[in-house]
Structure prediction request, 1348 residues.
Amino acid sequence: MIVVMNPGATQKDVTKITDKLKTMGYGVHLSTGENRTVIGVIGQRREEAAQAMEAMPEVEQVVFITRPFKLAGREFHPEDTVINIGNTSVGTDEVIVMAGPCAIENEDQLLQAAEAIKAAGAKVLRAGAFKPRTSPYSFQGLEKQGLQFLNEVRAKTGLLIVTEVMDQFTIDEVAECADIIQVGARNMQNYYLLRELGKIRKPVLLKRGLSATIEEWLMAAEYILSGGNYDVILCERGIRTFEPYTRNTLDLSAVPLVKQLSHLPVIVDPSHGTGLSGLVPAMSKAALAAGSDGLMIEVHPNPQEAVSDGPQSLTPDQFRNLMEELKGVAASVGRFI
Amino acid sequence: MIVVMNPGATQKDVTKITDKLKTMGYGVHLSTGENRTVIGVIGQRREEAAQAMEAMPEVEQVVFITRPFKLAGREFHPEDTVINIGNTSVGTDEVIVMAGPCAIENEDQLLQAAEAIKAAGAKVLRAGAFKPRTSPYSFQGLEKQGLQFLNEVRAKTGLLIVTEVMDQFTIDEVAECADIIQVGARNMQNYYLLRELGKIRKPVLLKRGLSATIEEWLMAAEYILSGGNYDVILCERGIRTFEPYTRNTLDLSAVPLVKQLSHLPVIVDPSHGTGLSGLVPAMSKAALAAGSDGLMIEVHPNPQEAVSDGPQSLTPDQFRNLMEELKGVAASVGRFI
Amino acid sequence: MIVVMNPGATQKDVTKITDKLKTMGYGVHLSTGENRTVIGVIGQRREEAAQAMEAMPEVEQVVFITRPFKLAGREFHPEDTVINIGNTSVGTDEVIVMAGPCAIENEDQLLQAAEAIKAAGAKVLRAGAFKPRTSPYSFQGLEKQGLQFLNEVRAKTGLLIVTEVMDQFTIDEVAECADIIQVGARNMQNYYLLRELGKIRKPVLLKRGLSATIEEWLMAAEYILSGGNYDVILCERGIRTFEPYTRNTLDLSAVPLVKQLSHLPVIVDPSHGTGLSGLVPAMSKAALAAGSDGLMIEVHPNPQEAVSDGPQSLTPDQFRNLMEELKGVAASVGRFI
Amino acid sequence: MIVVMNPGATQKDVTKITDKLKTMGYGVHLSTGENRTVIGVIGQRREEAAQAMEAMPEVEQVVFITRPFKLAGREFHPEDTVINIGNTSVGTDEVIVMAGPCAIENEDQLLQAAEAIKAAGAKVLRAGAFKPRTSPYSFQGLEKQGLQFLNEVRAKTGLLIVTEVMDQFTIDEVAECADIIQVGARNMQNYYLLRELGKIRKPVLLKRGLSATIEEWLMAAEYILSGGNYDVILCERGIRTFEPYTRNTLDLSAVPLVKQLSHLPVIVDPSHGTGLSGLVPAMSKAALAAGSDGLMIEVHPNPQEAVSDGPQSLTPDQFRNLMEELKGVAASVGRFI
Prediction:
């Protein structure tokens, strides 16, 4: 960390600050430039220390020179993390496709979707039992009954299951029927939930928050990793911008960037990322070309009857066609589906 | 709601859509323009119906003509809501100032802050026992012990207390020592928490999410209102933009806008809104001039020793001076402190 | 266009508005719902009419149901536009790569870059003679001398040239040495410049503004098209968001979306879009997979000595490798380089 | 400036970088921490040098510790700049109100607006002859005839005039009839225009760009100041965010922040800042309370007939009432109108 003194700082001011830093256990290194005195601070990065420094009237600003994440960072773990789930893995040359309806509506709908995506080559069924909805008057999910349907469809189809958990008190129930536990974008900074997910031994799919920086996203992963659960899959799903034509702006540059900064696998959800089924095929291909380890795609047996997210859901036919096209794109970047 | 047909839609397409709308219980009203057929849909706004329509290939877009909030809207409740809390009220000509440290660090710090803000004229003490922190390695709050300190300081000073609740399972504990229960920005769309807050009978301070639109914010209030708890105070605390010099961009236009759209009182938090104590006085005055019903300001006995948010905290002296200045500004817009 | 009356609007209010609309030459179509009267307005979309309506106290809001662009829209021109430039074309199955340094620094640097990109398979040399720079103290481009170097290098290498024009008064000079005239992001809404570009007969590369919506971008193209110049190539180059790790957020979803809305070709600039050379290869591949008609990539003989944009420039070696990889990705989506 | 070496940098790498810095004329100061070697660079801030450093593979990042603006900064000029215009001044305890229609439509409209705002106490008439419009099919301004009308109304009313210039080639014409030359938001980074405005001796009103950071805005001012024209008035007019209810998000925190960073006067345009006349009074008061040196407000004799921006224009009556209310707010912060 670097502490930049005010332009008019005196020798006494500098001594006051360096003394305080030493009291905090830091080493200091002075550098006096033409306009500013700069203090190189030697020791562990700590937000508290930085804030204390920023609150000093003699200090102009504090600059971090290291990233705040540790366990999630490449420096800590240079090799790519591979997460084994059932008979498959995330983070290898194989691209994993997770697909299915936004919400579980009934057993038939879920089974139809599951069979369709399985036939097309997807390995993981996505479907929500607990649904975070903007309006209290919208369908809020089948909840426990939805989990039961998931269990039955898992048994019938052999598909792996990813489904969302909404609070720390239903983790156990969800973990019973899910192979991957999803943390939704709205919960990315629900730290009490993240802490509990650090204590279990199931892979967690951590969606990027609507307006989360990549650093905040990796810090959310750090909560889970620091609890002892190392199996975190990151999922880019679009960020909020000023553009109104799309529901969100899918930030595909997050894929190669996260791969530089972190060892964790990262997948992409082009359905939420765009909100428009007509854009999903192009953005799915783009995600693979950008290096994504997988995709999460909404597929509904009949999008026009979906209780939620119909406009961004593919039909089974559209999904099957897309899966065919994706094989070529994956191959072009040395991957396979 | 308005359904806009595709440019090339045939009579048969239009009939298909109007039939489906009628099946859903809606009345329809056709309007054929030069380039588009537009269907006026008569009946209650329902997101599910809109999404189903948008998923139809014959439909270009769906446009809402009413707002999604009901109980939170001015149409439903034309008069300003006044919320009585102890011997004071929010939403009258009196401007309510809530002040105190970001986090409860120990009993002394809390009591010092409380006495200072009381002496300066604040009526409500703010202080967090449960702290949502970006890093798992940062101080996470004193939790239950913090609530205990709040109780003691409430008894000693007679100040009202506002403090944050982080999940639905600690609502009762928090409600025991708080006069106003705060929902933080990160939890604005934690719907399970909002639903439970709808069942209690204590005022809720609902902070605007970091990237929440005003409509989403009012829909979060709608969750609480629709559960039966009508005492919701909205709090603007800055939104995330591209500007790096400030922590957030304080959206003061939200104040008069919310007052047009809703009957709920709205206050402003310039401390989080800017992240810089040097901007807090100017933005506090601006908030009152814009019509805010109150302020929430971070004050710490010694910001340089604060474990969190020191850079945005006022000293007791700065706060006392600000309170003096605010009286004049309040008076200039027909209010008082 | 749809005019939504206030909730309390009387019959008299409605008549006032419909009369005014008729005076403006519009047909009207009334639809009375449970909460609102809605007026379907038949006739050409005009911003002036919409604003006049919105300024009426009896009107709650005005909603457009058609897009504002005409000549740029797919409805007007259903087939893809193909733009012929020299012996090549933009908008066919062939993907066009434009590459070169950010700024022309001297003749050697330019020639080295040109030869390197030509050897690697690029067809168009990009290089700026006029440079818009945030700081008045930064290098502002070689200006006229730069254009001369471009001419010489064009003659020597046979490469096509794309270079930026900064104002309407240097269009002729730039057009003399450029095969494609570039409008930079900062000038996307420089309407006087756009108007003049509508009068020439040279292809224009129109970069998306830093915070331009897709609609505004297409309206900027509309300025050029409406002047009579139909050869506009759109270029996505990243938008401004809250994310600090990248210079901009490359909005690849703009590619398939623009292709739906418009017939114009669209290319992608991953160099400005990310600001980081390490992300350029992944995002170049992603752009092609998303359906981009081309790429614009910064290549510098020696990025560490570049006077601008070194951090986002590829070396000739990196560029050659990338071109090899791009061939496979292009093929996987039915294109070639 | 601080150069942060890669985590694995060797002694040889460090020497390579320090040697290069010395060649560039910088002094260096090494600081070796636990994880990184940091080089304090002594000498003038130069973007070119920073970019060259960032392009070196041995370097992780470059951090600036000084601001890029010089002449616009408080360090260079600690006292507030006061700009004398005719018989009035901007930047004193007097708050200056500029008001009038968005566009000049005809002489009557302009004169009516002028007389109304003069009667209410405004000192400067704003009205546009050259109009930047999103659509090529919208009214583009009366251009030269508009300037003539401005001249006539100036003579009749004695009001000062502020009007927009759209390119560097009409500066002289505009300067003849304007007391203050306005640079619109879309032209904030039209550097060729800014350079020419640096050569004249007339006050320039520099609007903040739609997505300009405060630093970029001050750098745009720096272009004008570095040309020798020291009379720059900054104008905050709203930034682009994700919020759709308002046209822009008025960033009032820019006012106290600019006052800390710079000596230049700053005013606020709540009309463009919100896009809604109903929010203009509240935001005008808030602007004054935040410390703004003035206001720019759209007033139209008949907003319902305005050719542009009717929805955000006040009527003469509304403006007169607002002016009355503003007096009290100004007084409450030690200013007057």
Summary: Chain C has a mean pLDDT of 95.
